[in-house]
């Protein structure tokens, strides 16, 4: 049996390790954060992700999955080591590879057998080549190592499903041996396996994420224009989607993309292209549109309110998307900062993201246990995340609970007819305004 070790028990590493165990492999996950490993050993996932807890427990009990901080013991006799550590953004937009190289160094110094190192983390094109040379330079034993690329395409909130039934498995390998080892590991997955050279595999990851980010920024751009020319983005995207070349996915307008991938991967590829003396103009435009789109609701509300000073502002939804407690690059963060700095009293509700939000704004925000409580007596409301629980709320609640029902919805959670029927003031993205509620003169400009 192939001895598999996964370095990094964050989103990518943990989900990879758990899913590899689930299909029958014996996997050890390594991380240097002791608290995280302690939790995992008890069968508790440190991240909120559907099905993950269950699979962790099941595979620990089946003796297929284990966790440790002792990397020396784990790496020394591994056949294959997956690197699934974070590659966050540097100040200048480039990818920070410190974690990748720290792990690479540890691997080089501890392995005692021939080993295939597989980079799952999203890394700039050419990194696999560099890591292979780096590891060879630091090897302590006379063993054969090779590095292969195997990018990850999972999305948060559906990470387990995305991994177990991935759209494709991409293998970037420079030798038949490396290709074969990975094909054998992935044989139980039954998905298309695409083999290519390492640089192409690295590029597939960036090009896929940046294309999706571009799609979102494009539709946000069109939605903004719809508002000024009197079109409705929902009707427009429906009309577009019947062309199979366009499709109906990732055409939802909103307050921009957040999360741990699109913002950093667009910037990293743009940075890399500049280093290469080429400017990726399309990706640059996607980044610029997204930066502005984050504050789209604020811009709308400023037309209605002279200042947010002293107003009670309800905020529904904090995470960068539903189904996760992750706040990385969530548009809610800069928006709440703006409100708080302007002296608004922010009352927030999110089904799972509040504990993490408290780490950023421990005292400046009042956290409520339900959306209704956050809306109580509020002057205005912002919706930043389209949680099912929010989308299925009866819109009459805004009219009944709020002092003045000004609702600014950044994720188009409700039908316009519903807002009209509820008798509220409702602004969304790329759709006509609903102004059923007669705004009070003393509140608005
Ligand atoms: C993304 C990719 O989907 C995944 O394939 C890759 O491996 C990692 O990055 P993730 O960041 O988890 O996954 O979330 P995703 O569902 O793609 O959403 C990213 C952001 O785009 C969210 O803020 C979401 O609200 C926004 N989005 C998405 C839109 O604004 N409109 C859309 O139509 C789709």
Automatic annotation (TrEMBL):
Gene Ontology molecular-function annotations: NAD binding; UDP-glucose 6-dehydrogenase activity
Pfam families named among the record's database cross-references: UDPG_MGDP_dh, UDPG_MGDP_dh_C, UDPG_MGDP_dh_N
Catalysed reactions listed for this entry: UDP-alpha-D-glucose + 2 NAD(+) + H2O = UDP-alpha-D-glucuronate + 2 NADH + 3 H(+)
UniProt cross-references to Gene3D superfamilies, sorted A to Z: Cytochrome c1, transmembrane anchor, C-terminal, NAD(P)-binding Rossmann-like Domain
Top EC class of this enzyme: oxidoreductase
Domain UDP-glucose/GDP-mannose dehydrogenase C-terminal: 314-416
The entry's keywords: NAD, Oxidoreductase
Family recorded in the similarity comment: Belongs to the UDP-glucose/GDP-mannose dehydrogenase family.
Protein name (record): UDP-glucose 6-dehydrogenase
Organism the protein comes from: Niallia nealsonii
């Amino acid at each position: 049996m192939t001895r598999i070790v996964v370095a990094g028990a964050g989103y990518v590493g943990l989900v990879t390790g758990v899913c590899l165990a689930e299909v029958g492999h014996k996997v050890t996950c390594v991380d240097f954060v002791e608290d995280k490993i302690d939790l995992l050993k008890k069968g508790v996932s440190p991240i909120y992700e559907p099905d993950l807890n269950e699979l962790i427990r099941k595979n620990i009990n089946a003796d297929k999955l284990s966790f440790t901080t002792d990397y020396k013991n784990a790496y020394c006799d591994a056949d294959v080591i997956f690197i699934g550590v974070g590659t966050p953004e540097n100040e200048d937009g480039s990818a920070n590879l410190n974690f990748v190289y720290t792990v690479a160094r540890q691997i080089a110094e501890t392995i005692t057998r021939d080993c295939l190192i597989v980079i799952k983390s999203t890394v700039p094109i050419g990194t696999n080549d560099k890591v292979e040379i780096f590891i060879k330079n630091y090897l302590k034993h006379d063993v054969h190592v090779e590095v292969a690329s195997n990018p990850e395409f999972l999305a948060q909130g559906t990470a387990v499903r995305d991994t177990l039934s991935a759209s494709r498995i991409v293998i970037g390998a420079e030798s038949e041996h490396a290709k074969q080892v990975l094909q054998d590991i992935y044989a139980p997955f039954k998905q298309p396996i695409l083999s290519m050279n390492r640089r192409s595999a690295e590029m597939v990851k960036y090009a896929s994420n940046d294309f999706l980010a571009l799609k979102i920024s494009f539709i946000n751009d069109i939605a903004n224009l719809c508002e000024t020319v009197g079109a409705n983005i929902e009707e427009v995207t429906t009309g577009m989607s019947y062309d199979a070349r366009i499709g109906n996915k990732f055409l939802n307008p909103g307050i921009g993309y957040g999360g741990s991938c699109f913002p950093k991967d667009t910037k990293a590829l743009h940075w890399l292209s500049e280093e290469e003396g080429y400017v990726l103009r399309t990706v640059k435009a996607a980044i610029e549109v997204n930066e502005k789109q984050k504050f789209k609701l604020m811009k709308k509300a400023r037309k209605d309110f002279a200042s947010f000073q002293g107003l009670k502002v309800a905020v529904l939804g904090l995470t960068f998307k539903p189904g996760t407690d992750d706040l990385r690059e969530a548009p809610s963060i800069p928006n709440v900062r703006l409100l708080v700095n302007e002296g608004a009293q922010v009352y927030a509700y999110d089904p799972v993201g509040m504990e993490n939000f408290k780490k950023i704004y421990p005292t400046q925000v009042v956290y409520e246990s339900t959306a209704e409580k956050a809306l109580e007596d509020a002057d205005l409301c912002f919706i930043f995340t389209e949680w099912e629980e929010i989308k299925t709320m009866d819109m009459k609640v805004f009219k009944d609970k709020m002092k003045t029902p000004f609702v600014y919805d950044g994720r188009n959670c409700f039908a316009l007819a519903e807002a009209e029927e509820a008798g509220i003031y409702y602004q969304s993205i790329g759709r006509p305004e609903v102004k059923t509620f007669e705004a009070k003169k003393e509140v608005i400009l």
